[in-house]
Specification:
Blueprint lengths: L38 H16 L4 E3 L9 E4 L11 E11 L3 E6 L9 E6 L1 E7 L5 E7 H14 L11 H10 L12
Antiparallel strand pairs: 1-2, 2-3, 3-6, 4-5, 6-7
């Protein structure tokens, strides 16, 4: 959990970063590993957290704000001031359960669209924290879903690419002004 990069969990009238939306090419690029966790990365983390809280999100990956780096911020309890956010730098899923879970997902890059996605129910992930220390975390439920969703962003994959109900997907995207051409289904 985070210690070095604390921000107040509140909405800002002018968040520091712009979130890019489905159809923007920056969301489809693979991101690069972070070689050194320095002041610039810590500032990025702080601004990502402020932007995520301002948008009422629980997760944000650097590609969503057009930064091509493997940095993720997550806070599944944004209303709990005492619960610190989770910072994952260079995350990698090392184990995933055979048990699958279907969860309704949304995304700050596709506002208003919420659809069911099937993912492993439990995962184990390795990453570096904001101090550069290697960490390992076992996650299930909402946290496991959120970590997988954000790691997908690091690989240029969006949750709509994993939606199996094509009819509902097309209806929801059209209703919210997004092109179905921007979806790139994954196997």
């Amino acid at each position: 959990m985070t210690v070095g990069v604390l921000v107040e969990k509140k909405k800002l009238t002018k968040p520091p970063l712009e979130i890019h939306h489905l159809g923007d090419r920056v969301l489809r690029q693979g991101s690069k590993r972070v070689a050194k966790i320095d002041g610039e990365i810590k500032r990025l983390i702080r601004e990502m957290l402020q932007t995520m809280y301002s948008a009422d999100g629980i997760g944000l990956a650097a590609p969503q704000i057009a930064v091509n780096k493997q940095v993720i911020v997550i806070d599944c309890q944004p209303d709990e001031a005492a619960t610190p956010p989770l910072i994952l730098i260079n995350p990698s899923i090392i184990k995933a359960s055979q048990d699958l879970s279907v969860t309704q997902e949304g995304c700050l890059s596709i506002p208003g669209v919420y659809l069911d996605v099937k993912r492993p129910a439990e995962i184990e992930v390795t990453y570096k924290d904001e101090s550069g220390r290697p960490q390992k975390l076992a996650a299930s439920g909402l946290l496991a879903c959120c970590i997988q969703h954000e790691i997908d962003h690091l690989n240029g994959v969006m949750f709509v690419d994993r939606v199996e109900n094509a009819l509902l997907l097309n209806q929801e995207l059209a209703k919210h002004g997004f092109s179905t051409q921007a979806v790139k289904p994954v196997a």
